[in-house]
Amino acid sequence: MKKIFAILIIFLLTACSASSKTTTEPTASSGSNPQQSTQSSSQCKISYPNDPGWGISFCTTMDDNPKGWDLSPLDNQYLSGDIKIENGIYTAALTGKAASNYLNAAMLSIPLGKATNFYVGVSGKITSIFKGSNWGIGFMADDNGHSFIHFALLKDSYSLSRHNKDAVISDQVIETKVTDQVEIGAMNSMELKRDGNWLYYYINGKSTGRYNLSELQYPGNNIYLFMIVDEGAKATFNIDNILLESK
Prior knowledge:
- The chain is mainly beta.
- It has strands at residues 3-9, 55-60, 74-75, 79-86, 89-96, 104-114, 118-127, 134-141, 148-153, 157-163, 172-178, 188-195, 198-203, 206-212, 222-230, 234-246.
């Protein structure tokens, strides 16, 4: 497993300047709180098959950049790329820079909110000739990005990984499985639900497993969307219809 050494933020609810785009934290520490910008169930037009109907904390269909996200070109030590929202789709065309002799991967991270028990539904697609690119949901993250869990989709597989206090340089895979539920070259939906100690995950509406989180005593409750690309690799990510609920 490649080491993830760069965690880059786009603040979702306020337009950010170029100087505030890059940080080592996976969650926003300034700007509006996503949970203060919630939509009622009648306003949210997103529906996924395993939605438990909890309280809506965040909902966006990616139409017309309603949250005022920063869409300026990305160019820093670890990543370069173009970001846009067009025809109701968030698109990030990313290139990983050779920052450490092609040994690592860089992450573009978008904070969604905070919750202990949560449900997240999101749709996305990767277009890349490189195997290491993936996208997914991070959770149980502390405010410094030092400890977190993430569930990732690759081209034909998924993985559940944990990051310890040295998260920016280490990564432990809990499980990884090839699955025929991922439709290569198409938009795929990912759903995660944490209820107590159990994490349930679904791909394209179908259950692919569950995991008992009781031994993962991470103190954080930050939740975020991420896109990962290896050094020297290129990938285009399309993201749509993000729904976050909590109870």
